[in-house]
């Protein structure tokens, strides 16, 4: 059964695909909701901009493309995973700040889930090749 699945879906980096799908999901949520962030008041225009959600989606698509590509470059993987970590850390921090200010539990939940995705990203970074030998 396992060999049959590998012949149908020859994925050598399934964790990257999961991470990419998570980034695309976060990006879609941020694009679809133009009033998600409300604090701090001076940063709401920046945080609610569709560009932020678009960046999440683009990085997610690039991570999936890297995982499906036959010419996987180590430097590209490293850069994508580091950018992903920065985006997820920014998003989790914003969620926790909003949850604290608004006292809304769904924002704490979203913050914790993004921290878990961030830890998953760190796990991928730890297992990935650092240089080609």
N-end to C-end Cα span: 33 Å
Count of the domains? 1
Order of helices and strands: HHHHHH
Structural class: mainly alpha
Name the shape in a single word. elongated
Percent range for β-strand residues: under 5%
Q: Count the DSSP helices.
A: 6
Helicity, as a percent range: over 70%
- Low-confidence segments, ≥5 residues, pLDDT <50? none
Count of strand segments: 0
Largest sheet: none
Please compute the radius of gyration using only Cα atoms: 17 Å
Q: Give the integer mean of the pLDDT values.
A: 90
How do the helices and strands line up, and which of them pair or pack?
Elements: H1 2-8, H2 14-32, H3 44-47, H4 50-68, H5 74-102, H6 105-127
Descriptive notes:
It is built from 6 helices and no strands. The chain has 133 residues and is mostly helical. The radius of gyration is 17 Å and the shape is elongated. Keywords: Membrane, Transmembrane, Transmembrane helix. This is Prophage protein.
């Amino acid at each position: 059964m396992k060999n049959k699945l590998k012949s149908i879906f020859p994925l050598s980096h399934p964790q990257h695909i999961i991470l990419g799908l998570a980034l695309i999901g976060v990006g879609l949520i941020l694009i679809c909701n133009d009033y998600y962030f409300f604090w701090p008041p001076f940063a709401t225009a920046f945080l609610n901009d569709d560009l932020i959600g678009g960046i999440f989606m683009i990085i997610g698509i690039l991570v999936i493309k890297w995982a499906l590509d036959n010419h996987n470059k180590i430097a590209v993987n490293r850069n994508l995973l580091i950018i992903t970590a920065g985006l997820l850390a920014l998003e989790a921090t914003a969620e926790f700040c909003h949850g604290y200010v608004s006292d809304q539990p769904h924002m704490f939940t979203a913050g914790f889930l993004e921290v878990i995705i961030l830890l998953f990203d760190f796990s991928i970074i730890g297992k990935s090749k650092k240089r080609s030998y």
